[in-house]
Every structure is written in structure tokens, then in C-alpha cells.
Amino acid sequence: MPYPLVATAADAAAILPLVAMLGSLARAAGGTRVVVLAVGLSHAEEATIRAHADRLGLSVELIPFDPDRVADTPLRSPHLSRAAYARLFLPDLLPDRKRVLWLDADTIVLSDLRPLWEVDLGGRLVAAVPDDFILGHELAATGCRPGDYVNSGVMVMDLEAWRRSGAARRALAMLADPTHNAEDQSIINGILRGEVHRLGRCWNFHVNRFHEYPRHLRPRAPAIVHFCGQAKPWREETPFRFVFRRFLPAEFRLERPRVRKSLLRRLDLAQRRVFGLMLGRPKHWRTVHRAVALRAAEWTLRLRLAGRYRADDCPKTEPQGAVPTPDRAPM
């Protein structure tokens, strides 16, 4: 089978994460072909992407995407941009392609993508990872069962099946409906209900939600880490920020992390925590347990990236069919 074809989208705000993502692809999945949907990029920004890809030895094609095509679509989440909707146009933008692997620009690839690229969709339109953090009312709006709502940041898409089914046209029609208030991910879940093949969570590990995963759902060997949500590692300190920094070239400077609390406030909180631990207060001990769990997971991944630790292989898929709602108790 040919090398995987990855599609992603980038606007001016996504240049930095895209550069890091391309670096991770070159290291973990060399030979991958990449299509970047360029959403309003300048000639200089496009040249930066091409030059970086050439240095990495990656085959990258830039396809212009006009954001005016989705100018009337909703953007309720502050971390989203119009680039998020570009994936809905892939069946038409890649008319000669049969399959594509979509990756959001804020993902980092840590394993070979061939097992994901070759996954058997079983006649379904897309393969993706369940989203354990979707709110109940959003789940209900899509008609999905618990465990069937997926995150659209990593998707294996059967483009031929999308074209036959008209799924993209239905999604765009829903986006054009002024009475509809869902964004792209919920619309994708709504129109693809029953047409999704569930992947193992290691293929889209939401590192910013580390503490919200039940322990048995935290992958020991994530294949793709996803910095989804508002906190981004190129702007502030986040869990697993070192992974992003590892694949960002030195010439791309990061912003200084934001300091959310003053020094006096942090000293006050530290003092309260020390007294809380001495008095055996559960909330303070839970904070310590969570910090230890995060540091242990980060060091495990550091050792793995350094070649000093080999974890179990990432399972390609999860059992299909109804699954219970995960235990959301953080640890």
C-alpha cells in the first residue's frame, strides 16, 4: 500500500503548530505525503512551510482554500478558526484520492501512521477516536450514543464513500442553516451517526485533558498527541509541552508562557497547600496525586522518545458497538 496521505489546514495562526507537526511526521512517519489546505496564507507563510518541508524531506502540497466559503458558519469556541471547516471540502478538493488521514495542525505524531492508514473501516465513512469530554447536551443534539461521539481532529476518511453518500453536502447544508447552532465537529458526528469506526484512544490523546481521563483510558504509548482546547503549548505552559518543543526548530521562537497568578498569590496557595497536606485534607492530597501522575506520564514519554523505554503497541481499534459512559472521576 502507498505511503499515508495526510491532510491538514493552516491559517496564519497555525503556522507554528504546523511546523512542529511536520517535524514529528518526518521523524515518526517518514515518507508520508502531506496536503495543507492553505486558509488565507500569505506568500511568505506558504514559502516558510515549503522550505521547512524541504529541509525535512517531506512531500508537501499546498491547496488554497477560500475562508469565504464558510464565512457564515458559527464559531462559538474561541480556539477555533475557519480552517476547522476545511476538512468538509476534502472529497471535492482531492477528487482523485480514495482515502485521506486528516490531522489537526495542533497534533504531534509519535508513531508510524501505517497501521492507522491501513485500518479496515468495515464499510464506514470514517474512523476516529471517541471524545470522552463532550458535554451531555451536545451529545444529545447529535443523536449519538455514549462512546460513539468522536473527536474530528484525527480521522481516516474514505473519500469515495463520502462522495457516494453526499455526506459533505449534507454537512454544508446544515452549516448554511441559520437555525442550526452546532459547529463542525458536532455536525460531522450528526451526519455520520452509525458510519464511524472507533479507533483506540492512543491515536488521538487529548493531553490537556490528562487528569480527566479515567486511568484505564490513558494510553501508555500515545501514537498521536492532540493539544486541543484553548490552552496551546506555543503560548503557555501545558501538560506535555516538551513534546511540542521537541519538534519545533530553534528558529521558530515560542512566546513566553503566560503567568496566570502573581508571585504573592502563588506563595499564598503554596502555603495553604502545605498546611492542607499537614492536616490531611483530601483536596490537597488529590492535587499532589494528580501532579505525580502527570509527571510520571511525562517522564515515561520522555524515555520512550529517547529510545529508553518500549511500551506496548498501540491498538488500532476499539470494540465496535455500544459502550458504557466512561467513569469521569479524575485522578
From TrEMBL:
Keyword Signal attached: no
Keyword Glycosyltransferase: yes
Keywords, sorted A to Z: Glycosyltransferase, Metal-binding, Transferase
Superkingdom, natural source: Bacteria
GO molecular function, one term: glycosyltransferase activity
Name used for this protein in its record: Lipopolysaccharide biosynthesis glycosyltransferase
